[in-house]
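Worked example

This section walks through a single chain of length 314. The input is the sequence exactly as stored; nothing has been trimmed or padded.
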Amino acid sequence: MNKSNMARSALVLMMVLNLSACGGDKKKEASQSLVRIDGQEITVLQLNEELGRTPPQATPEAQAATRKQVLEALVDRQLLLNEAASSKLDRDPKVMQAIERAKAQILAQAYLQAQVAKMVQPTRAEIDDYFVKHPEFFTQRKSFDMQQLVIATKDFSDPLRTMIDNAKSLDEVAAWLDGKSVQYARNQVARTTADLPPQLVSKLQGMKKGQLFVIKENDRSLLVGLNDIKESPVTAEAAVPQIEQYLRNQKSQETAKAELVRLRSLAKLEYLNKVDGVKDEVAAVAPSAVPVASTATDSASKADNMARGVAGLK
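Given that input, the structure is written out below as C-alpha cells.
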C-alpha cells in the first residue's frame, strides 16, 4: 500500500471513529431523558435529585414503586409548569417576587453551608468533656412514662381544675370528661431527661408516681399522669454518636452566627427608614431570617408537644 492509499485509509478510519463516537453520544444523551412532554424533557438527573429527597426504601419493590411515583410527580409538575408559562404567570409581579425570594434564600443557604463545611469537627476530648459535665443526660438519665388526655383549652374550666387536684388517677379525670361530654384524645408517651427541656425535667423529678399535672399550649391543654420514673443510664461509648451530632450542630450554629456578625461588620449597612432602624449591637446578634444549614438540636428541639408547653405547667 502506497503512502496515498495509507493516508486515505487513515482518513476513512478517523471518519468512522468520529461517527461512532457521535452516535454513542447521541445514544447516551437520549438515554438520559426519561419522558418528553411537549418538547420538554425529564431526565435521569432530575429524577435522581428528587429521589435523593425521599426516605430510603428497604426493598427493591418499594424502591421501584417510589421511583415510579416520583417520576409521575415530575410529569405532573412539568405539565403545570408548561401551563403556567403559557398563561404568562412567570411575568406576574407576585410570582416574580416569590421566585427572587426563593433564589435569594437558596444562594444564602448555599453560602452558609459552604462556611459550615469548613468548621473543625468535634474532638473526642470535647465529646468526653460534654459527657462528664451532663450526667443528667447519660449516667443519671431517667425515663418518664406518662399518659395524656388532650383537650381543647376552651374546655379547661375551673371545675376541671378542681377535679384534677382531687383525682387519684387519670382514669378518674377521663370518666369526669365523659360525664361532661368533653372531647379528648388519649396518648401514652415515654420521654427521658435527654429528650425534655431542663425546666420540665426538674419539675418531673420532683413529682411522685401517679401525680397529675397540666400543660397548657395555646388552643389545647394536656392533662398528664406520671405513671413511672425509671433509671435509664447510657454508657460513654453509646453516647458518642449523640454527643458528636449535638456538638457538630452547635458548632454549625455558632459558625453561621459568627459569619453573619463578620459580614455585618464589613458591610456598609444603612437603614433608610428610621422606624425600621435598630441599634448596631442588636442587629449584630439578631436571629437571621436565613435558615442555617445545620441548626443546633438541643433538648428542647427534641421534645414533643409536652415540652413546648412547659411554660403552662401547673
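What to look for: Residues 14 and 20 are 10 Å apart (CA to CA).
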